[in-house]
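[Meeting: bench + compute handoff]

Bench side (C.D.) handed over the final construct sequence. Compute side (W.E.) agreed to return the predicted structure before the next meeting so the bench team could plan truncations. Sequence as handed over:
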Amino acid sequence: MDVIFSHAAPSEDDDRGGEGLPAHIHSVLVPVHADQAFEGFTDYLHLWWPLGVYSHFGSGSHISFSQGQMIEESEDGDQHLWGEIIDFEMSQRIVINFSLGMESAPSTRLEFTFAEAGTGTEVGLRHEGWARGSAGKAQYERYERWGEVIEYYARFMGAQL
C-alpha cells in the first residue's frame, strides 16, 4: 500500500520485473504433415527431449503428457509435475501452465502450435506470462534456451538444421 505515496520506494515484489519482458518465440519447420508433427511431439516426447540437459531428475528419467499434465518420472518412479495442459487441440495446438524449475513462482504460459507449411509443418513455440518482480526476471532468464530444445525435436522429426 505504501507505493501509492510518491515518496515511497517500490519494494522488490512491486517491481515490474517480468512484466514487459517479451515472449520467447521460436519456430522450426519439420518435413512431415501436421498430424505426424503433433504425434512426434506428444507421443514421442520422451525420445527427443534432452533430459540429460533439461530435466528435474536427469538422464534416465521419462517425460510424457499424461492425464492433462506434462510429467517427468524418475527411474525410481518419483514424479515431478512440469505443467498442466490448459488447451489441447489435436494436430494444432497445446497450451500449458508451465512451471519446471520455477515452482516457487506463478506458472507461465507455454504454447506450441502446428501449422501446415507446404510439404511440412511449422511448429511454433511461444512462452510468456512472466511473474512480477525478480521472480519474473528469473523465469525469463531460465527459459531463454527454448530455441535449442525445439531444435532437438526438429532433428528428431527429420529436419535439416
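W.E. noted at the follow-up: Strands lie at 24-30, 62-66, 69-73, 79-89, 93-98, 108-117, 120-128. C.D. will use this when planning the next construct.
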